[in-house]
Specification:
Layout lengths: L4 H6 L4 H4 L15 H9 L8 H19 L2 H18 L4 H25 L2 H18 L2 H17 L6 H11 L5 H16 L3 H19 L11 H14 L3 H14 L5 H17 L3 H18 L2 H13 L7 H21 L2
Helix pairs in contact: 3-5, 4-5, 4-6, 5-6, 6-7, 6-8, 7-8, 8-9, 8-10, 9-10, 10-11, 10-12, 11-12, 12-13, 13-14, 14-15, 14-16, 15-16, 15-17
Length: 347
């Protein structure tokens, strides 16, 4: 049975969620790979390492895989490693047991992010809730604060006007004063205010984060190290777009993308797509379609549902100009991508 991807995307269902075949459900599922992965982790001592160190290195590799190749390549492995950690915890004692629980929290948060990028907010929320529960067990204040901030970010991504600001404020109450995580949460609060139509509060929050960047850079916590001027400008641009200030949003996206450090391949695609949507709102269809084509290339490379969802918005916004050559080229390429994804997912 064929899937009407365009219809699904226009109702807000991410491509990754629509293509759930082979990706799995939020609940843990047994995998045939887990016993072998458990044996490999336990054998780490033969290489002068420990299971905990082995799992920490693996998580870093999975993060790099996601950034370069997209979430579909990593999501199954992350689910498997959560089961591996749970198996290792059965026999662990003392600090090893706590370290494994901390790792389980980190893997759970990573899995939430993968589902979020696939366009499956229900699964993302499920795993963030699990990560919050596990972080409380660990007793790591920064880790719990980070997970709470991520809950605010997810609420913003899903335009949850009820929870987004409250979750961001909760994360700030949990954070150490003047810490990087407090600034991260304030960034998500700024976007929440914009979603709720409060331009003054949104800009005030963005100014607060900008003023806090220098101090936040010296914070020793490993969480939120990507907070920089580019990231803050991206959220300012998103807020401007939510407020209907399309011209300003397009310029702000362009400035933020220009400032981005190398290596953020998939995120650059997300922001290009959002810039294109802003340009369409600003009635610059040719430029919107051209930038949309660049974002579409990244979407095809990574399978990012976040990019595809934004491109679906762009596709809809460009309908009034569909006879323009650049617009027609983009819409045709987008249709072809959806057809290709359907064929791939049903095989």
């Amino acid at each position: 049975m064929a899937l009407d991807r365009r219809a699904l995307l226009r109702t807000g269902v991410g491509l990754g969620a629509a293509a759930a075949v082979g990706i799995g459900s939020p609940a843990e599922a047994n995998s045939s790979a887990v016993p072998g992965l458990v044996r490999k982790a336990r054998a780490a001592s033969a290489y002068g390492s420990t299971p905990v160190e082995h799992l920490r290195r693996t998580r870093r590799l999975l993060i790099d895989t996601d950034n370069l190749l997209g979430p579909r390549r990593a999501v199954g492995a992350v689910r498997d490693y959560i089961q591996v950690i749970q198996e290792l915890r059965r026999d662990a004692k003392g600090s090893d047991r706590r370290d494994l629980m901390e790792l389980q929290t980190q893997y759970g948060e990573l899995l939430s992010w993968l589902y979020q990028d696939l366009g499956n907010p229900q699964a993302a929320s499920y795993w963030l809730d699990r990560a919050m529960q596990w972080s409380t067990t660990v007793g790591d204040g920064d880790l719990s604060t980070y997970v709470m901030a991520r809950k605010a970010q997810l609420a913003g991504d899903t335009a949850d006007l009820v929870d987004v600001v409250d979750l961001a404020e909760a994360a700030q109450r949990m954070a150490r004063p003047r810490s990087r995580l407090a600034a991260v949460a304030r960034t998500y609060e700024a976007y929440g205010h914009a979603l709720r139509g409060d331009a003054d509060e949104s800009e005030r929050a963005i100014d607060d984060v900008r003023n806090a960047l220098d101090g936040a850079a010296s914070d020793p916590t490993p969480w939120g190290v990507w907070l920089n001027a580019s990231y803050v400008e991206i959220h300012r641009a998103q807020g401007l777009e939510a407020l209907g200030k399309h011209d300003e949003a397009a310029d702000s996206f362009a400035a933020a993308i220009q400032m981005m450090p190398d290596g953020y391949h998939r995120d650059r695609g997300v922001y290009l797509a959002r810039q294109a949507v802003a340009l369409a709102g600003a009635r610059a269809p040719e430029q919107a379609a051209t930038i949309g084509m660049h974002a579409l290339t990244v979407a095809e490379d990574t399978g990012s549902g976040r990019i595809t969802n934004e491109l679906a918005r762009l596709d809809q916004a460009l309908i009034p100009w569909q006879r323009l050559p650049e617009v027609g080229e983009f819409r045709s390429a987008f249709d072809s991508t959806l057809v290709h994804e359907t064929e791939t997912d049903l095989t």
